[in-house]
Batch of 2 targets.
Target 1
Amino acid sequence: DVFPSTLPSRRDSAYSAWVSISVGCNNTCTFCIVPSLRGREKDRRPGDILAEVEALVAEGVIEVTLLGQNVNAYGVEFGDRRAFADLLRACGRVEGLERIRFTSPHPRDFTTDVIDAMAQTPTVMPQLHMPLQSGSDSVLQAMRRSYRAERYLGIIDEVRASIPQAAITTDIIVGFPGETEADFVATLDVVRRARFTSAFTFQYSPRPGTPAATFADQVPPEVVRERYDRLAALQEEISWEVNRELVGAEVEVMLAEGEGRKDAATDRLSGRARDHRLVHVARPQQAVRPGDMVTSVVTHAAPHHLVADTLVGVRATRGGDAWAARQAGPSVPAVSSGVALGMPGIGVGP
């Protein structure tokens, strides 16, 4: 069997890349169209993945995100339940690769060996995006999500015990068919207990071709909107509280293109901390490039970003070199600190 992709894939970034480890999904969530569109999970072999990672690093990439609909089910097709943990460790041994991320895991398949690999591999970033979808056990059952709220919270507790600095984010659907006020309150309770750094929250709407679109007990749109607003307000409060805890902390930020929309006005540059928080840093006096690292102290926190205006140091990287080489035309322009920088967002599925 041939993995259904063409390699090498096109990259928009010279210093950061996505690497597919699987396609398709063996789960049957009632709100999701992926299984019917992409079929059952197909896994790439570890050697092929590592070969691509090594080739990317040779081109200057310093950050890789492993991508799959359910990354921690990786290996099920070839009968190795420890394959994803082993893959994380193997990627961690690739010389020159500085940051490893992955998205998205499914709580059903999240195991201690993956948490150990995350904690014991220095280049695996202290970040976990794990979809919750609902905090109500009855709604989770209707969604055909094969875990319950306490199991989900138990995984978070285990991750934080091994990786105290981990930033945990999630996806939540509001107004799934049959969701009662009591169900929604259960979701709010899990959000309070989990203390997510951030959450991608969605108002449910029927998607043709999914079982949930045919459910009789659709929640009225005005109720969905009201619940969505309450959830968003709660998560905004928690995000702000969690981010304020980092004021005074030192963060390493990889400068990046695409997200620092106000950089020119504020005389700052933007990028992502190791835990993937968006950070706006004071502009260094020396020239820097996307892909370079800036270490700075957090001076201000907002719900969706940090400001770090106390500069500690700057480190040029191979990723920055690769960015500069990509910019080269007939002549190589001087690289200055006047480049507006940001970070491409991560699109995550349920």
Target 2
Amino acid sequence: MFGATQSTNRMNDFEVASPPDDSVSALEFSPSTVQKNFLVAGSWDSSVRCWEVEQNGATVPKSIKTMGGPVLDVCWSDDGSKVFVASCDKQVKLWDLASDQVMQVAAHDGPVKTCHMVKGPTYTCLMTGSWDKTLKFWDTRSPNPMMAINLPERCYCADVDYPMAVVGTANRGLIIYSLQNSPTEYKRQESPLKYQHRAISIFKDKKKEPTGYALGSIEGRVAIQYVNPANPKDNFTFKCHRSTSTSGFQDIYAVNDIAFHPVHGTLVTVGSDGTFSFWDKDARTKLKSSEAMDQSITKCGFNANGQIFAYAVGYDWSKGHEYFNPAKKPQIFLRSCYDELKPRIN
């Protein structure tokens, strides 16, 4: 074709229709309680969007809402009827998808970086972490939190898998909480990584109990950490999202997001180098690496049954404003991934 530009879809995946106007900061599939697949994305353009993902890979835009500032995180309610949206406007809003109404359910004194649903046998609540150096728990019907915990520093990343929560803060702090009965601090650790962390994801053991977490840093490295390792050697770190340039120096990129496969327990990392990689942490091996996109990959996630991998391509400002190209638009891609993430057979 004359004048055809090279495709930005380097892996021949399904492209999501009507993506946000700015980089994607949050990406979450609906939970297994919902029969269909829905995908929600929050963006630096202050929007949150919802699509239905059809069996053939096509996406149908369902709705869009605008927040009072850039969106930093989203999470689904356990029944899949609502989405919580954390924003730089210091609020978390509840988006009721059936009525398409939005209402405020949580507030902080600074931008809200993380929001997660806590679903226990005795209570359900929303956990929010902020740059105001607090972690708060809300039952969402009351304007005041059930509990507020002071953090040593700003909340940078967090994950929840009942009965475990983990929070990563500025200055390389890590705090693990036990959520049984009520949230209590279980253990504090300094990050095993020398540089600032950006992504954290809890993994389960063979009994499907949360047992540890993967932590990704801006220096192209991931740590696999068990909360109570049977052997200290079970904890390890590995390098990723690096490339050796022609001059012989190594280019090192940030790990922007980490997700564990809901069935296989293998994991994906995405980075500022514009690639995603699939890994088997137990065999300590890489399963697959993608081609490099023409922009960074900012966020990723799996759908509830592990058939679909979603990843968002856009600029993450990792090379400063001089590399920002407004002609390059954000994109979200969907990939059929179940077989590619099967663990290595030893």
